[in-house]
Specification:
The structure is a single chain. By secondary structure, the chain is α/β, with parallel strands linked by helices. A hairpin with an 8-residue loop joins strand 1 (110-111) and strand 2 (120-121). The strands form three sheets. A five-stranded parallel beta sheet has the order 4-7-10-3-11, sandwiched between helices. A four-stranded mixed beta sheet has the order 5-6-9-8. A two-stranded antiparallel sheet has the order 1-2. It contains 13 helices and eleven strands. It has helices spanning 2-22, 31-45, 50-54, 58-70, 79-90, 147-161, 176-187, 205-214, 251-262, 298-301, 314-328, 339-345, 348-376, and strands at 110-111, 120-121, 166-169, 192-198, 217-220, 223-225, 231-237, 264-266, 274-277, 280-286, 305-308. Helix 6 crosses helix 7 (176-187), helix 8 packs parallel to helix 9 and helix 11 crosses helix 13. The protein folds into three domains: 1-125, Orthogonal Bundle (Cyclin A, domain 1), CATH 1.10.472.130; 164-311, Rossmann fold, CATH 3.40.50.300; 312-371, no CATH class.
Length: 377
């Protein structure tokens, strides 16, 4: 306990100050919410018999603390600021993973647990994927595991293990929805189920309440829960989309908050009667607030562990599309192709990335200049 108190005193105030002064979190969260998420992760990663905890040395405790720190206080940062946070932490401790000089890796590419002696790269946990030999291949259904998915799945899994609602935020194209659906799909079983809900500007509190009531059954008295005494994860996609009224409130998200906070809803058929609804876990996803996109009320946001999904790295892009191309274009097997076509195909991913990197800066500059001219006109 004393070791953890010293770590909190050493790292938390410094990191929070750095977040305020030197970085740009993609979503504004109250600091107590970030620290609460840190406690949640610590409780999950350090979950075991007391005897085993007594054998963990101070360096290992610090590594576990740093791992939880980056996925709580540092989980609302983009890739550039994550690099800054990595550099800041290296100035405070030497107990960091060894990252090659000039490489793209930071502490975010490593994980640690109570059973490990040192940092381990997430790439060691990415399962091998092979191109299917059956025809026709449905490309939209292919799921290729990547380092990004593996680490985000692990972090969200820790949130859900402690029944902490999780909110995934990110730009369009960062596969927020696909990530959540894959995570929940792997958790499906005899004692777990999921329910997907997509919010829009037309979603009302009544629609949400009827959706929740439709996935639970009566257990005893006025208590309800998922069928078969299961636990259920309710995934709310585009949670920030409901209409904002003239007072600046999202009344649909107020009833979401009520269910998360109070584990129940009022019976619409019997006014004043309370219905307890238990064993529901909540996961939500939304785009970054700003630029015409709504934020969600702080009354709701404070219940969530917020995790920013960054744009896929160059390595991840090659891992996804390069693996598919190399699997499809081969000189042997049922999909065999001429050698010259195969040699050209394997270069497509790298060429596309180079083209994208060269086109983006001038296009962005052109768009900025055009906007400036239009504004002055």
């Amino acid at each position: 306990m004393e070791d953890l108190q010293n770590l909190f005193a050493k790292f938390v105030p410094s990191v929070l100050e750095t977040l305020r002064k030197d970085m740009k979190p993609v979503m504004q969260c109250v600091e107590v919410n970030l620290v609460t998420t840190l406690f949640t992760l610590l409780g999950c990663i350090w979950d075991g018999p007391v005897d085993s905890k007594a054998q963990i040395d101070r360096e290992q405790i610090e590594r576990m603390f740093l791992y939880c720190l980056i996925w709580s206080l540092g989980a609302i940062l983009e890739a550039e600021d994550r690099t800054k946070l990595d550099k800041h932490l290296r100035g405070m401790t030497t107990n960091m993973p060894d990252c090659p000089e000039g490489g793209r890796d930071t502490i975010y590419e490593y994980y640690v647990s109570a059973a490990q002696k040192n940092w381990t790269h997430w790439s060691s946990q990415v399962p091998t994927w092979t191109y299917p030999d059956v025809e026709p291949v449905k490309f939209h259904q292919l799921i290729i595991p990547t380092l990004d998915f593996v680490r985000y799945a692990h972090v969200v899994g820790m949130y859900l293990k402690k029944e902490k609602p999780a909110l995934l935020i990110g730009k369009v194209g960062t596969t927020k929805t696909a990530t959540v659906l894959q995570i929940l799909g792997k958790m499906q079983g005899e004692d777990f189920m999921s329910k997907n809900v997509t919010f829009s500007s037309a979603t009302t509190p009544l629609i949400f309440q009827r959706t929740i009531e439709g996935c639970v059954e009566k257990r005893s008295g006025k208590t309800f829960g998922p069928p078969g005494s299961k636990k259920a994860a309710v995934f709310i996609d585009d949670v920030n989309m409901p209409e904002i009224n003239i007072w600046g409130d999202q009344i649909t998200n107020e009833i979401v908050r009520q269910q998360i906070e109070m584990c129940g809803l009022y019976n619409l058929e019997k006014p004043g009667e309370w219905k307890s609804i238990i064993d529901l876990l909540f996961v939500a996803a939304m785009c970054h607030p700003g630029g015409g996109k709504n934020d969600i009320p702080n009354r709701l946001k404070r219940h969530f562990a917020v995790l920013n999904i960054t744009m896929p790295s160059i390595t991840s892009i090659d891992n996804i599309y390069g693996t598919m191309i190399r699997g499809r274009f081969k000189v042997t097997g049922p999909h065999r192709m001429p050698a010259d076509i195969v040699n050209a195909a394997v270069k497509l991913t790298d060429l596309s990335i180079v083209l994208w990197q060269r086109v983006c800066p001038p296009m962005l500059l052109f768009a900025t200049q055009s906007f400036g001219h239009a504004k002055h006109a």
